[in-house]
């Protein structure tokens, strides 16, 4: 099974890059499943119902909402009727929505998609390690599911790497999001789990992690907040990774990072 995961779609630049490059990537890599983190899709603040519908109409199979999932109030009711939109699994138990989704392909194969957030440099949440482990124990690789994918939405590379190794052999892939910067550590871990600390943002990189540069720079230099973060509006780069898994064992065979468009160097390696 070939899974394409696309990192944090940021504002209009991110949405336009996704629309422009997703069809070509699907063809190039013969992708079976598309998962997109959309926590910044609506002008930097969460997804809206309209944006979710647009993403699904582009062929996205599952959307992860990150720590910004509730930024738009309408999502609280929308998520009740849309199981393909995930909030983090380790949010409080009474949170609306679900943190995992069983996706069935047209040919009958299934992939369990899981979304967790980290606990370091982020708001307090339940233990992502325990939450993911419990779910993987109930859905072991090589059992009824053909693949288990985790979007590890975390700030710290140390927490992400520890989580990746902790899930090694339990998940087909643990791919990171949230930091908006792609990392060069995509690899298969010893137990067969594809791993990358962060697949990067999908948006305009002539920015400070997706926002226009002026406001964040003056916050650092003057310790003053004069305005709001506003998404940068230049051409966006689509950032993600494609993972190929073995349908019988659920383990990963290969992972390639992909980048297309905008100011970042292009990366479209053969798989
Ligand atoms: Fe983000
Ligand atoms: Fe985030």
Q: What are the salient characteristics of this protein?
A:
23% helix; alpha/beta; binds fe (ii) ion; 23% strand; single chain; 12 strands; 271 residues; six-stranded mixed beta sheet; globular
Query: Could you name the ranges where pLDDT drops below 50 across 5 or more consecutive residues?
Result: none
Backbone CA Rg:
17 Å
State the CATH topology: Purple Acid Phosphatase, chain A, domain 2
How much helical structure, as a percent, in the residues? 10-25%
What is the terminal separation in angstroms? 12 Å
Q: pLDDT average, as an integer?
A: 97
Tally of alpha and pi helices: 6
Give the full name of the CATH homologous superfamily.
Metallo-dependent phosphatases
The SSE string, one letter per element, is EHEHEHEEEHEHEEEHEE
Q: Care to count the β-strands? A: 12
What best-fitting shape do the alpha-carbon axes yield? globular
Return the CATH class: Alpha Beta
- Total tally of structural domains: 1
Bound molecules: fe (ii) ion
Let me know the largest β-sheet. Answer: 6 strands, mixed
Question: Could you give a quick summary of the protein structure above?
Answer:
It contains six helices and twelve strands.
Would you mind describing this structure in some detail?
The chain is α/β, with parallel strands linked by helices. It has a single domain, classed as Metallo-dependent phosphatases (Purple Acid Phosphatase, chain A, domain 2). Helix content is 23%, strand content 23%. The strands form two sheets. A six-stranded mixed β-sheet has the order 4-3-2-1-11-12. A six-stranded mixed β-sheet has the order 5-6-7-8-10-9, covered by helices on one side. The chain is globular, with a radius of gyration of 17 Å. The two termini are 12 Å apart. The protein binds fe (ii) ion (2 copies). The site of one fe (ii) ion has 6 residues, from loops.
């Amino acid at each position: 099974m070939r899974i394409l995961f696309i990192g944090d779609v940021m504002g209009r630049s991110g949405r336009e890059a996704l629309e422009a490059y997703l069809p070509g990537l699907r063809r190039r890599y013969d992708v079976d499943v598309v998962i997109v983190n959309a926590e910044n899709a609506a002008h930097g603040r969460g997804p809206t119902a309209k944006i979710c519908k647009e993403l699904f109409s582009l062929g996205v199979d599952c959307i992860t909402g990150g720590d910004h999932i509730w930024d738009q109030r309408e999502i609280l009711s929308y998520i009740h009727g849309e199981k393909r939109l995930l909030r983090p699994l380790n949010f409080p138990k009474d949170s609306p929505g679900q943190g995992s989704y069983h996706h069935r392909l047209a040919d009958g194969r299934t992939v369990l998609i899981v979304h967790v957030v980290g606990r370091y440099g982020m708001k307090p949440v339940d233990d992502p390690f325990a939450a993911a482990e419990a779910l993987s124990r109930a859905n072991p690789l090589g059992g009824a599911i053909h693949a288990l994918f985790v979007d590890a939405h975390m700030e710290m590379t140390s927490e992400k790497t520890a989580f990746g190794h902790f899930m090694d052999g339990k998940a087909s892939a643990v791919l990171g999001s949230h930091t908006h910067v792609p990392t060069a550590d995509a690899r298969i871990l010893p137990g067969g789990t594809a791993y990358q600390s962060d697949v990067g943002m999908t948006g305009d990189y002539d920015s400070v992690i997706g926002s226009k540069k002026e406001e964040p720079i003056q916050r650092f230099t003057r310790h003053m907040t004069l305005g709001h973060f506003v998404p940068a509006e230049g051409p966006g780069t689509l950032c993600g990774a494609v993972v190929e898994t073995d349908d019988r064992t659920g383990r990963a065979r290969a992972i390639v990072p992909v980048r297309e468009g905008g100011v970042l160097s292009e990366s479209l390696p053969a798989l």
